[in-house]
Amino acid sequence: MAPRDLALGMVFLVQTLAGILGNSSLLLHYLILHFTGCKFRLTDLILKHLTVANVLVILSKGVPQTMAALGMKHFLDDTGCKLVFYVHRVSRDVSIGSTCLLSVFQAISISPTCSRWMGLKVKAPKYVGPSTILCWILNMMLNVMVPMNVTGKWQNNNITRKMDYDYCSAISHGKITDLLYIALMLFRDVVFVGLMLWASSFMVFILYRHKQQVQYIHALSHTSSPGSRATQSILVLVSTFVLLCSLSSILQFCLAFFSIHKMWLVKASALIAGCFPTVSPYILMSYDSRLPTHCLPWIIAAKSSVL
Predict the structure, then answer these.
(1) Pick from 96, 28, 45, 41: nearest CA to 285
(2) Does residue 51 form part of some domain?
(3) Where is the G-protein coupled receptors family 1 profile domain (predicted)?
């Protein structure tokens, strides 16, 4: 194995282990909060679904990519490739949808009680559960065609138009068809990102106005309220997502439009795609003031593994 391939494999391995450890720590955190009787926030259910989606993204993308980078490229047959790609696409889309739902519901939860949002703020809690379940169902249905466009790397050798993903292959249906499919995916992502930016701008405005109104309290105490810290964590999370999603979309556009299928570009796209599921649990845990003291050793160990 070439030193460059070994180094890349180690990078994927560290990213995968850090992501699994971080998301496992976050799930353990919510489990402890449940058994200790801590009151859950409006957005906690969405965060649980986001964490599950992140774990599936890492298992379906990070683990196979790590194995392929370390030289083990014959571990998936045709059925395995179809299953892995389908799970990755569904979990990736659920992660995007959950992040969008997270920002929108948090914006609703911190809206002023005396505003026109009052009616929506009262009804919002009962829509959280159905919204997250609907997100899973819709993405499972919308991605039902993905397995048909994926094949094992050493299967169907009579198919000439393939896009090599190191351990599996995607069947190309022509440049126009591929571009149309990428355009539809990017349009959906742009809509979700637009909603996130709108909700984030609203939250920044609310936080700024609240700070102005209670400035004299902040002069006495430098601690932030739990609601403020939760909003700040979501703002950081959305900002990180928008940045990484933009980079990933640019690489996907290059792969589809310019017909550039160099392996380094495919691996760079996979590495960036795994960044958000890896860093998001550490962002959320660092801002959560409800973290139990007896859970801290596990969380600190998880954070130190990333550093």
Answers:
(1) 28
(2) yes
(3) 22-284
